[in-house]
Amino acid sequence: MAPPVQDVFELRGIRKAFSDEVAVDCVDLSIASGATTVLIGPSGCGKSTLLRLLLGLVAPTSGSVTFEGSPVDPTDALAQRRRMGYVIQGGGLFPHLSAEGNVTLLARHLGWDADRLAARIAEVCDLARLERGLLGRFPLQLSGGQRQRVALARALFLDPGVLLLDEPLGALDPIVRSDLQDELRATFDDLGKTVVLVTHDMGEAAFFADRIVLMKDGRVVQEGTFDELDGAPADPFVTRFIGAQRSHVVR
Ligand code: ADP
Ligand code: MG
Hints:
The protein is built from 10 helices and 10 strands. It is α/β, with parallel strands linked by helices. Strands 6-7-8-3-9-10 form a 6-stranded mixed sheet, with helices on both faces. Helix 5 (114-127) packs across helix 6. The longest helix is centred in the C-terminal third of the chain and has 18 residues, at 174-191. The chain is globular and about 55 Å long. Residues 18, 21, 23, 41, 43-49 line the site of adenosine-5'-diphosphate (ADP).
């Protein structure tokens, strides 16, 4: 008998408003363990806000978020957050820290000694395909693709069970992007982690996702595999969204 699929995150009746701007509304969602879930939709539809709700970086206006069965409490989420690796939209590297300084930031904060840091640096550089020779450089001295690898290495450093990636390949040129897509998927497959990845590109979603969650105006329009969305669209918007990007979908 197959083991029951466990859900890492559960969102129930989630609404998030910033003053009178509703970013996320009426969202009920379960994020399965060990799978890759892709959040997709047009710019401004609430993808980043939803990811930040999972991380406990913002509190819902109403509704509940649980992580591995415990409520996510943004006023006391530090211990939970250390079990999640986060790649911020745009990379979010600290410009005044070297690549190594960025990658090791959390672990140094936790008081790791030099030997333990060095051993883990070697491991995450392998995982993120980051050349060790780049570790002394500052973010401005790195290419876009190299910065993405540093951001990924930083997210992986504490070996979190969950990786949350906000448009990790957003600003890269097509060839670098395509190479990094292949490498990232290989990394996800190697690690067997729970991944939640945000993109606005349906080709990328189809490439990565076990499950796609398509959003519009803060709500989930449909969730399922790419073939389910393509073959049985729940709403004309699904057809329009896939159709507008069809030329990009390569699997
Ligand atoms: P996406 O990542 O899909 O582009 P976001 O989650 O960033 O969308 O934003 C959803 C909506 O919420 C947008 O209208 C945005 O302007 C608004 N929003 C997001 N964060 C804030 C904030 N901190 N304060 C006010 N409005 C916000
Ligand atoms: Mg965003």
